[in-house]
Each structure stands twice: as structure tokens, then as C-alpha cells.
Amino acid sequence: MTITSKPELGIALIGHAFMGATHSHAWRTAPRAFDLPLEPRMTVVCGRDGEATAAAAERLGWEESSTDWREVLTRDDIDVVDICTPGHTHAEIAVAALEAGKHVLCEKPLANSIAEAEQMTLAAELAASRGVRAMVGFTYRRVPAIQLARQLVAEGRIGEIRHVRAQYLQDWLLDPEAPLSWRLDKKLAGSGALGDIGSHIVDLVQFITGEHLETVTGALRTFVTERPVQAASGGFTGRAGTERGPVTVDDAAVFLAELSGGGLGTFEATRFATGRKNAIRLEINGSRGALSFDFEDMNVLNVLDTGDDPHVQGFRRVVVTEPEHPYLTAWWPPGHGLGYDHGFVNQAADLVGAIASGQDPTPSFADALGIQRVLDAVERSSQDRRSWVSVPGARFAAPAHVPA
Amino acid sequence: MTITSKPELGIALIGHAFMGATHSHAWRTAPRAFDLPLEPRMTVVCGRDGEATAAAAERLGWEESSTDWREVLTRDDIDVVDICTPGHTHAEIAVAALEAGKHVLCEKPLANSIAEAEQMTLAAELAASRGVRAMVGFTYRRVPAIQLARQLVAEGRIGEIRHVRAQYLQDWLLDPEAPLSWRLDKKLAGSGALGDIGSHIVDLVQFITGEHLETVTGALRTFVTERPVQAASGGFTGRAGTERGPVTVDDAAVFLAELSGGGLGTFEATRFATGRKNAIRLEINGSRGALSFDFEDMNVLNVLDTGDDPHVQGFRRVVVTEPEHPYLTAWWPPGHGLGYDHGFVNQAADLVGAIASGQDPTPSFADALGIQRVLDAVERSSQDRRSWVSVPGARFAAPAHVPA
Amino acid sequence: MTITSKPELGIALIGHAFMGATHSHAWRTAPRAFDLPLEPRMTVVCGRDGEATAAAAERLGWEESSTDWREVLTRDDIDVVDICTPGHTHAEIAVAALEAGKHVLCEKPLANSIAEAEQMTLAAELAASRGVRAMVGFTYRRVPAIQLARQLVAEGRIGEIRHVRAQYLQDWLLDPEAPLSWRLDKKLAGSGALGDIGSHIVDLVQFITGEHLETVTGALRTFVTERPVQAASGGFTGRAGTERGPVTVDDAAVFLAELSGGGLGTFEATRFATGRKNAIRLEINGSRGALSFDFEDMNVLNVLDTGDDPHVQGFRRVVVTEPEHPYLTAWWPPGHGLGYDHGFVNQAADLVGAIASGQDPTPSFADALGIQRVLDAVERSSQDRRSWVSVPGARFAAPAHVPA
Amino acid sequence: MTITSKPELGIALIGHAFMGATHSHAWRTAPRAFDLPLEPRMTVVCGRDGEATAAAAERLGWEESSTDWREVLTRDDIDVVDICTPGHTHAEIAVAALEAGKHVLCEKPLANSIAEAEQMTLAAELAASRGVRAMVGFTYRRVPAIQLARQLVAEGRIGEIRHVRAQYLQDWLLDPEAPLSWRLDKKLAGSGALGDIGSHIVDLVQFITGEHLETVTGALRTFVTERPVQAASGGFTGRAGTERGPVTVDDAAVFLAELSGGGLGTFEATRFATGRKNAIRLEINGSRGALSFDFEDMNVLNVLDTGDDPHVQGFRRVVVTEPEHPYLTAWWPPGHGLGYDHGFVNQAADLVGAIASGQDPTPSFADALGIQRVLDAVERSSQDRRSWVSVPGARFAAPAHVPA
Fold first, then answer.
1. Would you say the pTM of this structure is higher than 0.90?
2. Which molecular function GO terms apply here (chains A, B, C, D) (predicted)?
């Protein structure tokens, strides 16, 4: 079925769990919402289990399924490899894909170790020199209110940044009887709340402010240290609920940071914030204005402008759904809000645009490596109970063009 | 005890229930918060029961108590009569006080009938020609955010008024076993939710917009038509809970209004708004801006200015505690909010200021008569199931000076 | 391209403007988000202009385009006709489609006149007897928070309904120089704010409460009575900005209503609510609890339960994104909110489910006719300045099954 | 003037600036709002400047004024010494007053150094053995919502505390041309934002949770290091605006804390939080529930109970104005909110109650010393860039009785 006259862009999706589903939605929707220069084609989805992957292909709308991602890399009709697998597999797949000349979209966190992330960044830079693009899926950057926040900082409306408050609050591990999933195993997941969700707020703060975190001090905490072992999938084991295994990652992380512009930041990432489901809360106070955002009200950015007349000065509740707002020409009329998945659609559209125009998309692997280094410094600060660990060689890409 | 060198202003309070308590607080506090030209002296409180009134004098801080308000009117050391009794007694006391040359502060609603209100207004106008002042206690006008709202309309920031949404929501009659108090007896109270709290939102809308309600159509409703008769106070009667009597006033009132400037208003006053305790909610949309207020967050006025840049336009959450805001030079630093009673203190200060400067305070008895006429038109509309009853001879005072 | 083994359901979309785009998104997304019994196939889109319709087909993802909807009705591979054209064309297309044995999804308002709506309802009932389904696109019913609201009323948590406050507030006509679009022409649009958005809040109130509006009284208002005539599309006319034509529909509507259960409602629909973009605000107070909703925060339902301990009683801010909430098993994890378009996807899924299971979907044409009658009564009340016009023969379908 | 038959309690106020004004309001109001066992008498106010103090006596309502606080301590008609002077004078006055057998209410922070605070605590403990009471003015404890928060923790509704987020945000030093007041001089003020407002959030967290901060790590920051020197009060100096002096205290403080129950806390106190005027924000996540408070909406406590049914679970917005709530029997009906000053009135009433009943009031000097030690540990952590400084000998009073 050909519904468009545009050149096609063949996509291979690796992984078909939660992130695979959101990326599938994005690839399907982006060319209909945006007038893209290339038409993404949902060619093949890869997974380990043949039957499950075939079912995922039908459910998520991919033409084919495969259990051999290496074979997929050899196909001429694949242009983009979209990596939605757990973190410990990212490096191998991404490096191979880039070397095979495929553009790569890799989910965050980039890797489970600094060494892997460095290797991937090197591969991405080599690939870039050959016109192959690499991008990391810090999708919350693509929420229009976040883009607007960055734009307002860039416009000078906030002034010099003095304070950042950044929290990513969830509560899905509250129940001590919640099972010991792979996400709680350091070997597979690399990190707990810090890497999974703390990485997002580090990225968002650096993206919005255009600054980076120079030194950090913090603490990790595991509140529930043992949990019931899950039965192996697909079979009865008789162990569920009786055997317990150790949680080897953090449940929560708190840290302070000094920003490169001289401001102070407080950061918190936790899966134990009772009553908060996916609350990404950012607050920035500058010398001229301030910003406040909460993902639980994701279509709103609160903006303070100290230039307003004193008797009518206060945070403006900007509903970020106007045609003047980032990405909104592709979407609905004012007040008809967007949801979680729209950020992924915007992300897919941006990647297609970058590929077509021959530009490097952001966030780059180098950006993601910088975030890994921040998280690593937090972890070392916590382990050693040392204060103010410097983030070594923090690399931070220059502020990218803000989408109109 | 003399703690001030200023000339004194002798106050007599008539009634010592809830309103008597708030007015006592106001007389005690106003000269300490504001630099008043006269020093109010809490000379005497009047009530029907000698013992109870004496106890009230001690509790509320009055020098003397009396059971004879007529005698009090003859005293030279009384300058102001503050009427906090139920509505059916207002006319007699107020007219007598004005004729005795005493300034009068009368609680709202002004009277239980249009005829009484007209008589009182006439008395006030005659008294004014002799330099005697009369004022009605629509105290919510004295909330700083409300004053600011009026100021913004006067500054032209809102433009032509198109829509008004005004609600006064309480829920204290929700329980059908709540007893049949005098407030539910039309002979004593005159009206139910309409007169008690509906009068406030009519006043606030007219005060803020500087317009008046020209025609109305509405409905009154009594949801619980019979309630347990209360035992007589002070004795055991054995009747409580078994005998029931009829509720003769409205539990709730809704009405639409056409404003003199061409806008449309929706109004609602109810004691059955489950979960709302004292929610006075006002929203005004004009051709240039908008306002939104909720007494449950009384230190905040939300203000929209359509002149703001489109990408940063939104309701500004103005915390009305800055020195630039009405009454705030008398109070606490920014962000240190005010409560319910501060409006009464501001009201007392305004009255003292008007007396000292020889000006007529607002709202006048004529203003209150205008409000009575609106409520009467609503009631007639409801009884006859007639639409759009005109408010006869609606008199509306010119916008008063907005306090700095 | 076949990506599924399920039986297909051929869809024809009539109209490809704003509503056509949202419906296209819904047909594309529903089978991927939900495990549907049938696979919708986006077969053909119809429009008046061949070139524009062909472009729309590519942009929105339809296999073919056509300028002859009557011809499309004869095709065997079309099972569902989805009508997204202006209101004055609904009756002709819907009746023809139903007579041709096609299931129909018709956008609201159902028709521009009661007579047309009655004719359509009759056609739908005849079709139903032949197993052909008809449904109206009151899509806001499919917002999870709205479904939850209805469920809570049905569970008895709210009790007897005393008060309803329903507002649909927009501001896109604020500028008096906004052009005279077809939506402001009564011949084409049938009605202004009342029919376009007032219809939604009447539907939502009746849907949530399970009651209907028995009598109404109200007022319509046109604030800007003349606007610049738009140049004909596709050519230079020289008239834009100089010639003006009359606005023949209402800019705003306010009305009161008596509900069938004895409660009182206030309703307001306007395109002049400065600062409100698409604020659908509902508040319901019952004898046991209360509900509050605002589409500007569409993933939240505020719920009061008077059974809570008094010292911890207050409106609960329920983030309606849990697996226990309506439709949410198809969507993202807790706290990962939905947007405007998800209601359309849910709607498409519900229609497919009804077709597959042989049940009549809701809201039916009869439900929509009932809404038309309410709006008509409001209009007559406004024209005659008569109060409390009864809604004749108000028909209200029994509460449908609430989705799990 | 004697308006009560109760035994009197003679009060001497030392200092008559901002805090002196709020305490005056409290002494005047408390016996009228509460039915106190003793009648406070506002006997004398002390200050350095005779004329200014005499004016303050009239303005604030004190019977006499004095420039000799030592002389006042010898008076038999003085029972309570209320210290509202800058921190560097607290120790001398408080110790002398306690030794003179006077009950003491001392403003926070208790002292400018640990040594002074220890000396004062010793004096208070000695005095207590003689029936002389000492209390520190951490007035925010007396906000009803805060008392309710503590009560809910004590009731077990929150469970084990996992996370605390505590912020005290102001912005009054935002302007770099704001003058160099004594509050910015470390010799006089002892500390900047940390001691002035950070002390409050440490107290509130310890008070609500019943835990103490065991170890801390943090950073202080002075954003504006030089400011214009103020002209000496009372004379023209010609220096204002040209000469600049160093700011020797912190503008902002951030720190992390480990709580004695194993939870993690993030703390922030700043005078540079653009747009926040007096935002005391507390959020507590426990194993069974959660709490959220913001002083900008001070009559509200948001409460989550994980025991609620999942489909109606969410933060309850409790308006803390019911008769069931702490202190509320003394105040207004539901929904008629309190303001900043009511906490001071409640505090005065509590102190009078403690004196009359012969109980030690809270917070004690020992409690305040514990807070000083936390602040000192933060400061040392910041200076040395050391992490996780233990709070030595942290003493924390057992949870006091929660007022009904």
C-alpha cells in the first residue's frame, strides 16, 4: 500500500515492550501530523522470541518481524535502527548499526557504563563524518512546554539562572511485595531511579538552561532491599512469593548541583513518592524571570516576568497549545491538549527532518554521555560519602536551534 | 486606659453573635494596623439577654454592656452604631440611630423587604445632609484582591465586560437533619441563600464592573423542606429530633442577568454545594482581559492581559500582598497572606476615614437597596416562572475612589 | 499491505477538515492501541474538491479519494461511513448511508434542525432493526475522567444530584476583525456557540448524571454583529477587510435548567471567554459527594466523598491514568497523560466493538435528538424572552454500560 | 480599663519592628479569640530610641514605653518577656529575664551562635525547675494545616517517612541595588537565608515528622556580594548609592539530609526565588500516605491516603477551617480562611495556656538549639565542601500534645 509519493525511510525497531509501543505509535503518526520530507516505513520489528515478536508486529503495526537484529542491519531497505531494548544491550546494537551505516535512535539511558557510553559516542562521531545520524530518546525535550521553556531562557526572559529545582517523582515501587523485576537488577538495568528517571531531569535542566552541572553531591537509597522473586515467564516455578532476592539498584536518589553559570540545583528522582505517578517538576528562578512546570499538567508552563507592572505581576499560566508554540502547528487547536505520546511523535519527526536535511539531531550520544557522567558522579559521591564530586570532562552541546 | 492622643470615636455594637465577634475584632485591630485620624473606643455592646451580653462584653472586649439599645442612642459618648442583628430588626435600629445623629454601620442584607430598605435609604440621605454617615457591611469588597479587580477594570485593562460568572457556594445545610434555625424562617431571615450570600455576589459584580444588573431570570429551590425543630435555648423541651417544621426560605438560587454594559452574567448562591465551604468565585471576561477569583484562595487574583506576547500569554497568578496593592501598606510583607477577618478591619478603617474626612462611605444604603431590588426581581422571576424581570429603578452609586 | 489476520472493516470518511483529521488519527490508532475484533481499513476519503481531497488522502493516510460520496455508498468494501462535514449536510448523507446498509458515525451536532434530526433518528431506528449501527460523535464522553465521573454517579458515590455547573469556554472570536466564516452563518452552521459547544456540555451533563434537562430558560447573545467578509478561497477578490457581513448566529449562550432528578443547572457556552481556550468545566454537587472537571486539565477528576473523616475531607485530585480507570488498559502507565485525540481513538474502538458484537453504540441518534431539543428550547426561550421552556418529548437513553 | 475578671499576665515586649508588631497583634487578639485562663496585659514595650519607642507604644497599643529593658525585668507587674530584637541580643536578654523569674518568648533563630544557644538552653532548663517557662517563636508551627500534618503523621496515616521536600522561597533580594541592611551583616544577623528562613523549615520538618535530621550536606551561596550602603537612619549622609559594602551572609542555602527514621530530605532556603514571596513548601511521602503544603495557600493541606479505593485515590485538598481542625474552634466558620497573623495569636494563646497550667511550652530552647546545630552542620559542610556532616548531640523533644 502506497499512500504517499515521498521517498521512504525504512525503520527497524529493536524491542517491542513499553518503549517499543510508544515508538511504533510515533512512527505511524509522525508522517500524518507533520509534513515530513521522507515517509517512514514501519518495515520490521525485532525481538528475541519469534512468536511474541510476530504478535507484536501485528499489534503495533510492523510489516515484518525478526529475531535476528544483526541480519536486519544488512538489509538495504532499512535506513533507521530504533533501539528500545534494555540498557545493557544498547552499546552492541548501536555501534553495529552505525557501522552498518544505519541512522540510530537509541533509548535512554545511553548505556549502563561510562565506558560503553564513550564507545558509543565515538562510534556516533565517526558515523557522523559519513553522514550517518545518531540521536538519543530523551523524549521529554519534545514536550512543547519544555521547548518553550528553553526558548524563553534563550530569549533572555529569565536572565541569569540562580536556582533550579528538578524532581522526577513516581511511586510504583511503594508496595514492598512488588516483584523483583529486571529493572531492580544492577547487572541488567545499570541503575535504579537515578539512571531511569534521574537522567531525564538532568537532561531537561541542561537543555532548558543551556548550562551543565559542574559538581554534584548526593545520596542514593534503597528502601526495600529484598523483594519476591518473580516466576520465570512462561512457566510455573512455585517460587513466587516465598523466595526473595536482593534489590541491587537505588529506589531513590537526591543530589545537589552547581551549574556552570553559578546557580544552585536540587535534584530528586524516586519511585517512592507516594501519590505521584509521573511528576516531572521543574522550577527555575533567574535574575529576570522564572519558570515552573509539572508533567502532571504537561500542557502548561508557568512563566514569571519581573518586567510586568508590580500590581499585576505573577506567574502566568501559559497553556502551551497556541500556533505560536513549538510543534503546535502540527497539532490541534488552542486548548485541545497533548498527551504523553505526542513527545515521541515530535521526536520522530525531528529525526526524520535531521536525516533529510543532513544535520545532526539532538540530543546526541555526546550529550547523553555527559548525562551519564553526571549520574556517575552522583553515584560516586553517594558511595564515598564525598561531597561535590566534579563531573569530569562534561561535554555539553551548544544550544540547538529551537524549533519554530 | 488611654494609649493614644487621638480624638476618640465611641462605638456601640448591637448584636454579639458571629458578626458581632468579627466587628469587635475589627474595631480593636483597625487603629493598630492603620494610622487612623480617630481612635475608635469600644464603649458598649447591646443584646437582649443581660447575662449573655455581659459575658460577650468581656469575651469580645467592650467596656460596658446594655440590653437597651434605645438608651444607648441617647449617650453623648457614642458616635457610631454598628448593627449586627438579624435582618428584621435593621430598619428600626438604623433609622433611630441616624435620627439620633449617630453614624451607622449596618450588616447586610440591609433589610428584609424593599419597603424597609427604601425607608432606611431615605433616612440615610436625610442624615447625610446633616453630616451623619451610613454604610453597609458588604465586607468582601474590602478583600484586597477584590479592590484590585475593580482597579484593573477602572484602568481599562479588562475592556468591555462580556461575561460574568459569580458563585457563592457553601454546604452547611447538606445534612437533612441539620436543625431548623431562625435563618430558615422567612419571617425572621427574609430570605435564604439568595439574600444571605447571593447578595454578596451581586454587590461584588456591581462593585468590580461599575455596572449594574438590569434584568434577571432565575429560580429558587428548597431541597430539604422540613427539618427538626430546635429546642428552645436555655431549656429542655423534649422536642428535638421528633417534631419537624417547614423550611420557608430557599436553599439555593440560580439566576441569569443582563448587565448594563451589555454583558451576560450567571449567578448561583447555595448552601448545598457539597465540599465548598465559603467559595466565592468570580470570573469576568472582557474584550481586553479577564479576571478570576476564588475566596478559598483569597490572597490571589488571576489576571489575563491580551496585550501580552502570544507565546507567554496566560492568566497571571497575582499574589495580592505587595505594597502596591490596596490596603497592604497596613499589613504584612509580601506573601504573608491575609484572612477572612482582615476585610472587616479594612472596612472599619474606611468608615473611620470617611467620618473623619466628612465623606459618605460606600457601599451606601442606596447601593444596598439596589441589591435588594435585584434579589427581589430574582424572587419574582422564580415565583411567576417569568423570564427576564427588569430591576426597577436600579440605583447604582458612581464608582468610589479605589483605596491606594 | 496486510498487517493483521483480523476481518477488515472498510471505512469511508466524508469531509477532511479538522474533524476529518482527528477521525483519521483515530481510525489509524485504535486498532494498535486496542485489541479490536475487526481491523478498520482506511479505504476512502470523500470531499468536494478532487485535488484537495487527493492531497488529504495522502496527508491523512487514506488509500483512495473520491468526490462522489453517493458512489462510495454503493461499494461493497465500505462498512462504515464517517460523516465529518458541516451540519447542514448530515441528514442527507446519514440517511442515505443507513439506507445503503452502512454503519454511520456522524459528527455533532446531529443536524441543523429538529425536523432533520427526527428524520435521522427514524432512519437510525429502522436501520438498527436491520443490524446497522448509528452513533454520534460526542467525543468528550470518551475522555476517561468523564467516564469515571459517570461511573461514580452510578456507584452512588455522589448521591442525589442537587447542582450542576457546566461551562464550555473558548475565546477565538474575541478579535472583532476575525473574518466571517461559514460557522457564523446560520444557514450553514445552524447555530453558533450554543450548537457547536453548548451541545457538548448538555450531552456531558446528561451522560454523567443519567438525568435529562426538563426545562430551560436562557439567553443568546451576539457581541460582534458584523465581521469582514472573507475572500473566496482560491482567488483574489479585493473585498477582504473592506466589505462586512452580518453574523447570524450566537457568540454566546447562557441558560438555566431543571434536571429530571430535581437539581438545578447553570450552563454557559461562549467563544468570548477571554483567556479560556477550550475549557469544558463541569461541577456536580450531590447529597453524598461532588465532582469537578476542567478539560484544560483533562487527565484529572476531582472527587469529594462526604464519607471521609471530617478532618481529612476534601476534593481528591484523581489523576485518571491508572489501570483501574476507563480505557486506560489500552494506554500508557500511570501519570503518562492523554490528550485531546485519545477520546477519538476510544470512540472509534467503541464503535468497532459495538459493530462486532451486534450492539447499538451510544450516544445514539435519539440521544442527539434529545440534545437538539434542549438547544431548541433554549433558543426559543431566548427569542421570546420566555422563562422555563419545557423540552418536548425529551428522550434519554438508559445509562449505557460503563467501559471497564 | 478592666474588661475581664481573669487574673492578669503582664507582658513586656522588647523590640517593636516587624516582629514586635505581629506579637502586639497576637497579645491583643489572643484573649478575645480564645477563652484563656489568664488575661494578658500589654504593659510595656522596650526599645533603644525613646521617641520611636513611645510612638510604637501608641501605634501598637502598649500602655507604657521604656528604653531600659533591664529595669523592666525588675518590675513585679511583668510576668512575660517577649523578645523581638535581632539575634545577637537574644542571649543576654533571655538569660537575664529567665534569671529574673520572667517567662520568656524568644523569636527565632534562638541565637547567633551555638555557644549562646547552649547557654540559653541551660538557663531555660534551670528556670523550668523553678516553674519559669521559655518558648521559641517558630510560629509556623501554629498554622492549623501544619498542626494537622503532624497529627496525621502521629495517627499513622502517613506511615514510615521516605521523602521530605522542604523549601522556603522568597525573592526580596532579587534587585542587586537593594541596600545593605543589617540582615546582610553576619555580625548582627548571624546568618542569611539559612538562619532566617531555613531554620523554619528544619523546625517544621522535625515537628511534623517527629524525627530529626541526623546528617546533612549542603551549600551556601551569595549571589550579590556587594550592595549599596544605607545612609544612617535619621540623617543625610550622601553615601547612599555610591558607596558599597560586602554582603557577609548567604543569599541562599541548599542541603540534603538523612532523617532519623531513614528517610531522605532536600532543603532549600533562598531570598532569590523570583516570583515566590513567602512560599514555605513542604511535601512528605510515607509508606502509607503523603502530605503537601504551601504557605501561599496556607489554609490547605493536601493529603493522600493509599487506603482509598484505587479508582478514586488522589491528593485530598483539605481546607483546614473545620471545627475538627486544630485551633479552629477559636476562629471563623468553615471556608473563612486565616492569615499570617493567626499563627502568632495561636502561639500567644498556647504560651498563656502553658504558663497557667504549669507545663513547659514547645518549641523549647532545647528544640531551637537542635535546629541551630543542624544549621551549623550545613554551614560547616558548605565551608569545607565536606559531605554528610553529622549533627552533634541533636536533641529533639518528644512529640508534644497536639492541640485539639
1. yes
2. nucleotide binding; oxidoreductase activity
